[in-house]
TrEMBL record:
Pfam families named in the record: Peroxidase_2
Keywords: Heme, Iron, Metal-binding, Oxidoreductase, Peroxidase
Annotated GO MF terms: metal ion binding; peroxidase activity
Keyword Kinase: no
Protein name, entry field: Heme haloperoxidase family profile domain-containing protein
UniProt-listed InterPro entries: Chloroperoxidase, Chloroperoxidase-like_sf
Requisite cofactors: heme b
Family of the protein in this entry: Belongs to the chloroperoxidase family.
């Protein structure tokens, strides 16, 4: 009976998501400057005061959730958060679709922290159960075996990531591209296998999680290096910033996967290692 329910549930969910994707195709986009709904934090690019985490506050490996807590959109201490409320606030802050914001908190509740979605609350650091949502070879965190506190950004990795940007916007400002993300992900995965040799794991699902996390930099942030520098290093939303996703219904899974899938498919640890060996050989010559 449970299997039958799960099948019908999944069919209903993906039908819902595809329906929202279609609506985005036919309805006009949200106007620039009004992506965040009126009456919600961030409307018109005016975000609540940024306060870095204080001693005793709870934070996790997700910069997007940490930034929301740092601005007081989620509780500033990062504690006693309702799953449903988290989904609602992610939607209005980053313009993800209602289907996306239904799935993610349910997955976090049921698969990661093992709590009741409707009744329980959670602290942000509870999301960092290894190989739940948190995973090895992150683009902005050291592996948990090397750095158990996953709440802190790893400055070296973020600096390297942003230095990989090869794109330019119409004003000549640097942009990260799909190829840039895939190239740096290749490096991180290959390097992590070496530096975290005894503990490294990266299943298919966590490879996809990794590419999904990195793809938000292209979708929600439009690849803009200046905004990403503030977001990733300080876990702060820049003044006057709004999501680059302007679809009326927000970013759906179907639309998101048009970025996630190519990013993942272009990742090649072998290619990275081959190019690295060639560079080292040229130095020796």
């Amino acid at each position: 009976m449970f299997i039958l329910f799960k099948i019908f549930h999944d069919i209903a969910f993906f039908s819902w998501d595809l329906g929202l994707t279609f609506v985005n195709l036919v309805l006009p986009n949200r106007p620039v400057g009004k992506v965040t709904p009126e009456g919600h934090p961030g409307y018109g690019g005016k975000w609540p005061e940024y306060i870095p985490p204080q001693e005793g506050d709870s934070r996790c490996s997700c910069p997007a959730l940490n930034a929301m807590a740092n601005h007081g959109i989620l509780p500033r201490d990062g504690k006693n958060i309702q799953f449903k409320e988290m989904g609602r606030l992610i939607r209005t802050t980053y313009n993800f679709s209602s289907s996306f914001c239904y799935f993610v908190p349910h997955y976090a509740a049921e698969k990661v922290v093992k709590k009741d979605y409707n009744k329980d609350t959670f602290n942000l650091d509870e999301l960092d159960r290894h190989n739940g949502i948190e995973h090895d070879a992150s683009l902005c965190r050291e592996d948990s075996a090397l750095c158990p506190d996953q709440s802190k950004p790893h400055v070296e990795y973020i600096t390297q990531l942003l230095a990989h940007a090869t794109g330019k916007d119409k004003d000549g400002n640097p942009l990260l591209t799909m190829k840039d993300l895939s190239k740096y992900s290749s490096k991180r995965r290959a390097d992590a296998r070496i530096y975290n040799k005894e503990n490294f794991t990266l299943s298919f699902i966590h490879r996809m999680f990794g590419s999904s996390n990195s793809s938000t930099m292209l979708t929600i942030f439009g690849g803009r290096v200046k905004d990403l520098e503030t977001f990733l290093l300080e876990e702060r939303l820049p003044e006057n910033w709004e999501s680059r996703v302007r679809g009326k219904m927000g970013l759906t899974f179907a639309a998101f996967n048009l970025t996630v899938t190519p990013v993942e498919l272009m990742i090649s640890e072998k290619k990275y290692l081959k190019e690295k060996a060639a560079k080292e050989a040229n130095k020796d010559d």
